[in-house]
Specification:
By secondary structure, the chain is of the alpha/beta class. It has a single domain, classed as 2-Layer Sandwich (Cytochrome Bc1 Complex, Chain A, domain 1), CATH 3.30.830.10. The chain is 47% helix and 20% strand. The chain contains nine helices and six strands; from the N terminus they run ββααββαααααβαβα. The protein has a six-stranded mixed β-sheet. A hairpin with a 7-residue loop joins strand 3 and strand 4. The two termini are 21 Å apart.
Amino acid sequence: MTKTRVYLIDKPGAPQSSIRVGLVGIERKNPDYYRAVVMNHILGGSFKRLLLNLREQKGWTYGVSSFFETRRTPGPWAAGGEFVAAHTADSVAEILKEVKSLRDEPVSDKELQETKDELIKAFPARFATVSLAAQMANLAIYDLPDNELESYTKKLAAVTPADVHRMAGKYLNPEHMAIVVVGDQKSNEAPLRKIADLEIRDLDGNAPPAAAAAAK
């Protein structure tokens, strides 16, 4: 994507809007994988920046998060959740603001250490019952080295504030994102157009006949 664009799918009278902000992310074998995981968790992990802002401070959502979906080839990075309809455009703007803040301002040693501790302490749970088989299968699926699981926590612990700043600048560009909003078009179209160029789409991703005709 060359420029951030909003795709609005109309759901007339919807009391809330479903929002996803995203772009192409990274593949699982990317050398930046662990640094990117930590960077993203600071932004959209449990009770991290997005949630503290949009739920705890503003009360516009019950839950908001972000994630890299890593695959053999680059998968998506996305952030979002379900938001009070009256604050749809505001919520999009706040997500983009938090992304920009992570890119522009250094993360504190305290916030980084708390994030790494959280990820490292959660790692052993991956080896419970069926999860163990899935972890072993991932080594083959993603062609990872045999010692990948042994070095997992060490690689997380090695991430520095400079790494976080570099990963945010490298992978999260608010000027080149796709923003998908499912919600009431009548009340949300005008404020969303103030954020970025906007296209109306149907549930299948196609432009409705009236919008397609207007674009010709």
